[in-house]
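Please, why this fold?
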Amino acid sequence: MLLTFLSHQWTGFWRSRGKGGTIAAQLVMGFLVLYIIGVAILVGYSMNSLIEHFLPGKDVIVVFNGVILYYFAIDFLMRIQLQELPTLAVVPYLHLNIPKRKLVYFLNIRALFSAFNILPLLLFFPFSIIQIALSFGSFASSMYMVTIFALMVFNNYAALYFKRLSIVNIWVVIVGGAFLATVGLLEYFKVYSITSLSNIVFQRIALQPAMGFLFVALAIVMFIVNARYLRNNLYIEELKSGETKKSSTDYPFLDRFGDAGTLVALEIKLILRNKRSRSTAFKGLIFLFYGFLMYKQSSIDKNEFGLILFAALFMTGNLILVYGQFMFGWQSAEFDGLLANKVDIKTFFKAKFLLLTLSATALTLIVSLYGLISWKLAVVELAAYLYNVGVGTVVVLYFATRNAKAIDLSKGSNFNWQGVSATTMLLVLPTLLVPYLIYFPLSFLFHPYWGIAGLAIVGLAGILSRNFWLGFLVNEFNKRKYTIAAGFREKS
């Protein structure tokens, strides 16, 4: 049955429309993957000498042990963003008399065919075979490889399980993001170290190799949990139109915003139920860790807010940028219906403002945890938030009225340039560079805090004058709505 499923996938690919573009994209991706694999092989076989070169005087095995769990922690975050869910591959078979266990087995096997599952083997196996075998014996070397393979399997199915849960329950994302932020803060403050934990674990495996089977057990448990979840949820959801609720929302707090709140609730459902919008929105969570790279203690102490401001603007407003740049393209398939129905365009724009404001508010609340490092960071983030909500939202919606590129919601966002135009690229300039035109003159003439205050005041002015900008954007939209609709009808 597995070979039958694979042959169907192969046949479906060659019979699909636009396979030429798909083949070209796959070739580019193939060369990129081959390059990464080549680098991984080189690093794997040269790891001993690389550690000695870059960390002279350090015990090579201690450094190697400390890297393993750290790698898999980063690997898990990367999988959440980039690893595809193969669930759609079995949708055509759900109405047929095929046991679910076979469909689940196919999905689980197919999920193993990923570049993410090759890299750790190429990176860590050569060192384990050569160095660990020389130092601790062949059994310890074998158990190192078994443990690394088990961690790879665990990450593979844990990431898929987390992504599937996050689709149906937004609280999984919130709790997961809070947990990752907590771990990052503990690592930053040196309260807890993944590197130290990794060294302890693998030092123990080197001395007592049988402990590696604990990780094998964890991988098996994760495989079973993922398979059971698939078995219980492998059906086409929400096909009964009679059970759908028109008003309001599955998000009661939006009721207070009236029709705009209802439209926001519908767009949240669009985000969560479609591949392109969901993966685009969830990418914002990865950028929450940007502060660990850009928030330098030396800059904080000297009140040098240049790089700090860039990170704050990006973290508090990245959803405004990455999701808002395609603001009308998300509804490209229903855009003609939007124009034909009695949808008040002003309310439509109010909903867009509300959605972007809520997204920036949620991100700001999360990144405010950086204020534990220094209260100065909280001040800069607050100013960046006000600017993003007051000015960034207006800029993004203005450029959206000049983008007529349709978007296929069923495709992922990784390496997908559909919907991208010159206007979507240009909007980055006023959103991220204009704040510096406000900050730097005030900072040089007076004090860095005056620059931050100026940015906050401009943002507040934008918020207080939102009704004016709302009317301006509605007029701009009405001028171009038929051009936008014509562009959305062109499927490319």
About this structure: The two ends are 35 Å apart (CA to CA). The longest helix spans residues 19-54. The mean pLDDT is 76. Residues 2-7+22-233 form one domain.
